[in-house]
Amino acid sequence: MSSLYQIYNRKTCLTFQLGSLESPQNIGSLDYLIKWSELDHSAYCLSLLFTYRDFSGGVLGIAWVAQPEPRVLGGICSPRVFLQERGQLMSFNTALATFLNFGRRAPRKVSTITVMHEFGHNFGSGVSIPHVAKWFTLGHLRFPPLSAFWVSKE
User: Fold this and answer.
1) pLDDT tens-digit map of 81-110
2) Catalytic member of 38, 69, 85, 118
């Protein structure tokens, strides 16, 4: 991440990180979320990446879904863990949302709904689309279903 800045507002107790996540332009939404999760977000309960990338299939956002089971990673306040298979620490208290969809800027209402939708998954709301509710495995670790929120081209 280059040009990282922190803005802290004592009144609302919100912290924001501003910067850019360098990666290939054609990176998929899951790979981009994994890249975002490779950074240390342990100082935050939840870290949302706002981007202006046009992901395939109309994906507007993706998040790790929190689960009530202990030892299942993902969602708000998830601890940073070392993944032996990757040889690195990863944060699973992350999500991302893009403002670009099918080559056009997403309307403000759509972007707002996307962010709230992904927040819901980070807090444990389930995935309502069955083919998206797939468990993600990385080596011997099992993660909750990913949330991928998209709109159709029509």
Assistant:
1) 888 888 899 999 999 999 999 999 999 999
2) 118
DSSP one-letter string for 88-145: EEE--SEEEEESEETTEEPPHHHHHHHHHHHHHHHTTPPPSSGGG---EEETTEEEPP
pLDDT digits (tens, 9 = 90+) for 37-75: 999 988 888 899 999 999 998 899 998 888 777 777 788
Task: Count CB-CB contacts under 10 A for residue 140.
Answer: 8
CA dihedral 41, 140, 26, 77 (to 10 degrees): -20
Q: What is the pTM of this model?
A: 0.74
Told to judge if 118 belongs to the known catalytic residues of this protein, a careful annotator would answer yes
Residues 92 and 75 sit within 8 Å (Cβ to Cβ): yes
| Cα Rg, the chain, nearest whole Å | 15
